[in-house]
Amino acid sequence: MKLYRAAWSTNCERVALALAHKRLDVESVWIDYGDRSLVERISGQGLVPVLDDAGAIVHDSPAILAYLDARYPQAPLYPVAPARRAELETFVDWFNLVWKRWPNAIAEELEGRVPPDERTISLAAYELESALDRFTALLDGRDFLFGDFSAADCIAYPFLKFAGHRDPADDETFHVVLDDHQRLGPQHAPLAAWIERVAALPQV
Ligand SMILES: N[C@@H](CCC(=O)N[C@@H](CS)C(=O)NCC(=O)O)C(=O)O
């Protein structure tokens, strides 16, 4: 099994957590952001992560997590009960389709417009800060977002970890936005503890 990945990639880290959780052996193929030719050739698109499982090519991190869970059911990432699974999938979709738009919007303003639209930034910043309360509530009385470690933790951790720490060498605008706009207060102690808990888990 091969994982095509790139340095500092949040979406690749999702898969790195899942593969280690399932104790699957994988060869990492590190690509350069400036040269997507290899990834484009094998997957027909240029983004990472891409998984090559003995010729089965899967791209898009949520699709890779679902593929891995179906193909390798040990150490599950999704609940078996249909209602519980639907709840978790709803969280994954909310995170990707709603939550992610806020840091993306801020990063786009900072990188694209001169001068940036302050109203867009402040609205998205408000949503990002407010979401910290929701993640904290999800962790009330449990160690992981949906109880046991699951796809929800793989999906969210690589983005929420910036509330805890950022490697100073990682100065990508999107990551700086996640660092600047996710300030934890004492009320977020369960979220801070979860960040450290997931940080301590293995990754491939
Ligand atoms: N929906 C995709 C998004 C993949 C994606 O945006 N990957 C980033 C790395 S985290 C990438 O390849 N970025 C390069 C670019 O946008 O040029 C997923 O979740 O895997």
Describe the structure.
With 204 residues, the chain is of the alpha+beta class. The chain folds into 2 domains: 2-71, 3-Layer(aba) Sandwich (Glutaredoxin), CATH 3.40.30; 82-199, Glutathione S-transferase Yfyf (Class Pi), Chain A, domain 2 (Up-down Bundle), CATH 1.20.1050. 54% of the residues lie in helices and 8% in strands. A 4-stranded mixed sheet has the order 2-1-3-4, sandwiched between helices. The longest helix has 21 residues, at 118-138. It is globular, with a radius of gyration of 17 Å. The N and C termini lie close together (12 Å). The structure holds glutathione. It holds the Pfam family GST_N_3. It comes from Conexibacter stalactiti. This is Glutathione S-transferase family protein. InterPro entries: Glutathione-S-Trfase_C_sf, Glutathione_S-Trfase, Glutathione_S-Trfase_N, GST_Omega/HSP26, Thioredoxin-like_sf.
Features:
single chain; 204 residues; alpha+beta; Glutaredoxin; Glutathione S-transferase Yfyf (Class Pi), Chain A, domain 2; 2 domains; 8% strand; globular; binds glutathione
